[in-house]
Amino acid sequence: MLELTNIAPPTLPPAQRLDRTARAFETVILSELLKASGAGATNDAFGGGIGEEQFASFLVAAQAERIAHRGGIGIAEMILRSLPESPHDEAG
């Protein structure tokens, strides 16, 4: 599972820290959803073996990160909109 370390440096403004943290959380959720759907399952496409199995998780993590970076599936936006001080709040 991906770790939520060094998500947003404390030197960033709070709004940017919230945004980065919400997107990192969405990346973790997407990674788990991709794994559950079989995206990380090896099919011996590259010869199989233990090496392919070990590096399949890196592929799933990269795919999840790209999906989240391109807008994701809305998890980060829902989190940001639910926070009263969110810069994405429609009232603000």
State the low-pLDDT regions, or none: none
Q: Compute the number of strand runs.
A: 0
Mean pLDDT: 79
Distance between the first and last residues' Cα: 35 Å
Encode the helix/strand succession as letters: HHH
Radius of gyration: 16 Å
Q: Biggest sheet, in brief? A: none
The helicity comes to 55-70%
Quaternary structure annotation: single chain
The helix count comes to 3
User: Which class best fits the helix and strand makeup?
Assistant: mainly alpha
Structure description:
This protein has 92 residues and is mostly helical. The protein has a domain at 14-30 and 75-83. Helix content is 57%, strand content 0%. It is built from 3 helices and no strands. The chain has helices spanning 14-36, 49-69, 75-82. Helix 1 packs antiparallel against helix 3.
Task: Describe what is shown at a glance.
This protein has 92 residues and is mainly alpha-helical. The chain is built from 3 helices and no strands.
Topology:
Elements: H1 14-36, H2 49-69, H3 75-82
